Amino acid sequence: MALKIKDTCINCDMCEPECPNQAIFFGEEIYEIKPERCTECKGHYDKPTCMSVCPIDCIMVDPEHVESEAQLFDKYVKLQGLAE
SS3 of 60, please? Predict the structure, then answer.
């Protein structure tokens, strides 16, 4: 599952630099997550770093982008250029 930043985001700038896949960007009003780049940090860390550093817990699972752990890892492999 890709993650999503709720509209309660306070734009604290904590999450964007922590994302190993460059999935987080500043949108029109708040930070947003590109679902095609979000792997929930699979392949990088044990848990999503953006969720760990968010001071107000405004990052959640995006119900519109449900993926299995295997799909997230496959996405990680492709993003890292490790696929043959």
Answer: strand
